[in-house]
Design a protein that fits this description.
The radius of gyration is 21 Å and the shape is globular. It is an all-alpha fold. The chain has 23 helices and no strands.
């Protein structure tokens, strides 16, 4: 990311993105090994699924109250206090975990991450022009990619100290770096104008009236077919991400017999490919081709996952090719999808509508952990097939959304 590009950011988007590496670097390190860490401490595949699902259930609850808390406390306070709870405290719990009860407690605490998730999107989007939001989410994707380059450091720790001690060190580093990020971001951002107004309005309405007002947000979602379609794609995207994050590393190590120390190389390869895609391919995609870019990205993601199950091999070249296709697919779909979702939401209703979307996402993705655990025990390839099916369904929904856009534009021209 060049200095010139970053200087284009203004206000809260600059403050939010400047500190984001301090979250994404440690997350990319321990995220690769989280499932293997639980498994090596004696947690069964089914219990891993249950812990994942219970965590998602808590996220459903925190998503439901996130809009109210974000409006009531303000974007800055909500993101600071609940990030400290859901990530700083959770990483310490993971670092000292001994059995299933430690992981369950950490999952419950981490489940409150949906409050800062909604607050973050409000903080980074509300003072940013709609035309600049794809740019902001592209930069956010770049930072995520660069964070992935540090995943091999986790592999070095595992090789040097062993899997369990190495992952414990990663969680301690995550606590230190994430806490620094939360405080630094708080000091370099300001409350948005909409946030200040919503704080006043929420205090006047009270909790009961504010929660009743959520009924209007739900009606807004279901009354608009374009909104439903783009939200449906977003839900499928999150569903596959939950299942893939939970079971891919386990599939590679347990079923394909890839060495644990090598698994961290794949996120790094993915990061390099995503940066090359951003540099060589993304500038050639015009803004009006965003829908087609998303469909192409989803199609590549289908192919990358199918490769791992039609020819289950520990051959690093084959797994590397799958990783390359997945990286290109993600890079040319994710920023456009994030911007499309945010641009579909009215700024005045952002906290409520986005929190309700988060509830819908989590209600429909909560079973992913249990489904994945049962499916993995039946056949470790099934979760990867499910991920492929989610991307294939996204292509179909995107075709419907693209066709609807074209029809609406034609009607507008006729009028």
């Amino acid at each position: 990311m060049s200095r010139r590009r970053f200087s284009r950011l203004q206000g809260n988007s600059r403050g939010c993105l400047a500190f984001e590496p301090f979250f994404l670097i440690p997350y990319s390190m321990f995220g690769t090994y989280a499932t293997l860490y639980m498994h090596n401490l004696g947690i069964s595949e089914t219990n891993i699924g249950w812990i994942t699902t219970i965590g998602l259930v808590v996220q459903v609850f925190s998503s439901f109250i996130s809009g109210y808390l974000t409006d009531r406390m303000g974007r800055k306070s909500a993101i600071l206090y609940f990030d400290l709870l859901s990530w700083s405290l959770a990483t310490i719990l993971w670092a000292v975990s001994q059995n299933v009860w430690f992981f369950l407690a950490a999952a419950i605490i981490n489940g409150f991450q949906r409050v800062p998730h909604v607050a973050f999107y409000c903080l980074v989007v509300e003072d940013t022009k709609p035309s600049d939001r794809t740019y902001v989410f592209t930069l956010l994707q770049i930072i995520s990619v660069i964070g992935g380059l540090f995943a091999p450091l986790g592999g070095l720790l595992v090789d040097r100290f062993g899997l369990v001690p190495g992952v414990r060190i990663m969680y301690v580093l995550a606590f230190l770096m994430m806490t620094f990020q939360f405080v630094g971001r708080h000091l370099t951002t300001r409350e948005t104008e909409i946030g200040l107004r919503k704080m006043r309005e929420t205090r006047e309405l009270g909790l009961k009236e504010s929660l009743i007002d959520y009924g209007g947000a739900i009606r807004d979602i279901f009354a608009s077919k374009p909104l439903l379609l783009i939200f449906g794609i977003y839900i499928l995207f999150n569903f596959q991400a939950t299942m893939k994050t939970t079971y891919l590393s386990l599939y590679l190590a347990d079923y394909l017999h890839v060495d644990s120390g090598l698994i961290s190389l794949f996120p790094a390869v993915s990061s390099v490919i995503m940066l090359l895609t951003l540099w060589l391919l993304m500038p050639k995609i015009p803004e009006q081709a965003a829908n087609r870019a998303m469909m192409a990205g989803f199609a590549l993601s289908v192919l990358s996952n199918v490769m791992l199950v039609i020819l289950p091999t520990s051959n690093l070249a084959w797994i590397g090719l799958s990783t390359v296709l997945a990286a290109v697919g993600l890079m040319i779909s994710s920023p456009y999808l994030e911007a499309a979702v945010q641009n579909a939401i009215d700024d005045e209703k952002r906290a409520k509508v986005f929190s309700m979307l988060s509830v819908l996402i989590l209600l429909l993705t909560s079973p992913a952990g249990i489904i994945g655990g049962w499916a993995y025990e039946l056949d470790p390839r099934i979760p990867i097939w499910i991920v492929s099916a989610a991307f294939a369904a996204s292509v179909l929904l995107m075709l419907m959304h693209h066709r609807g856009d074209r029809v609406r534009k034609e009607r507008t021209l006729e009028q």
